[in-house]
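Margin note: ligand = iron/sulfur cluster.
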Amino acid sequence: MDKQKQQKLVYMINEFTEEDEPPSTIDLSTEEAEVSIRFNKVGARVSNERIGISQKSLDFLSKHYPSATEKDWNSWQWQVKNGITSISQLRQILDLSEQELLAIDHDKYALPLRITPYYASLLSTSNPDQALRRTMVPTIKEVSISKGESEDPLGEEHHSPVPNLVHRYPDRVLFLSTGFCSAYCRYCTRSHMVAKDKCHIGIKAWEPALQYIRDHSEIRDVLISGGDPLTMPDPHIEYLLSSLRSIPHVEMIRIGTKVPVVLPQRITKTLANMLKKYHPLYMSIHFTHPDELTPEVAEACNRLADAGIPLGSQTVLLKGVNDDLDTMKDLMHGVLKIRVRPYYLYQCDPIPGSGHFRTHVAKGLEIIKGLRGFTSGYAVPTFVIDAPGGGGKIPLLPEYFQGSDNGEIFLKNYEDKIYTYPDF
Ligand code: SF4
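Resulting structure:
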């Protein structure tokens, strides 16, 4: 996608400022007046107003954005407007490997480049194999298409009765609110629509999807995703939430997002206070690696949890990124510490050029086997394959059930010991 089209997708962020937010019962004055707050040495926040800045980010800010202030850094709009989208910007920050340079020169990869300055501050400058860097910086491997890969592996476009909506399961729908993300993951399932002109945003564009939900009383659960819905300005998010909440049969609303991880500055107190008006509201947050668990992210998640929003994690199993037991255990333990409950571990979807990210399914089963029984049940996500062609999520479990005979079933425990249970 060329720069001009990307610019179009951020138009709303340029148009809206904090002052555009709707009248609210909370006092904005403290937040607007507040200067940036730093975390203390142990990473704890030193104020409860703004998201803090860790030392790593401060060093990055003074090195790469010498004219920007800490207040700029803490503005989510500044982070989006200053997103890294070109090779020349990336070159100033990272020592690019040959594979990365070749990819960036290539025009065939599905997703454009976009990284928030905050997330870029977490990338290794010298090691192209660092986990977070692999998830954000394209390599030439993305242009190799393997057998079984497809643009829309989950068949979402075939289950879309009206624009911006996917209705695959009987009682719930996926609402595609925007095609924009503040950072583009190289393995994105929705690479067929994110950063493209396919998904339209705004009150008019959403109306057919909202009307479809009004007309289908069996829909009790709406997942707002995209793209990333939390990249939209507060009035847009609130319009969508209030429209859905006014539909009597919509019992619950969920938001799927990576914003608290790649753009924690977006989780302002104003946003958290607005979201909590629309309970029951749940949030699934996309985490990839323990290196993402910074004080800023902890603060963002705490704000959301304090707003009463149940938080769940979603993680894609990625080769060379998080496909070993210790990394996954650290991640699951780490998210629990910031009040996020591990929810799903996904087998990587076969999007074009994802072969270098996909592990064998056996690897995911091995990781689940290494977690279950060895750590708290709360730390064990459900391992699923989202079936290609639109079959939905299919859970996968190691073989704990070993068969049955003569009124007894045989079960293998986490230590591989066999137990029987009467079953008649
Ligand atoms: S945040 Fe989600 S939708 Fe956006 S690029 Fe990453 S995986 Fe795709």
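DSSP finds 17 helices and 14 strands in the chain.
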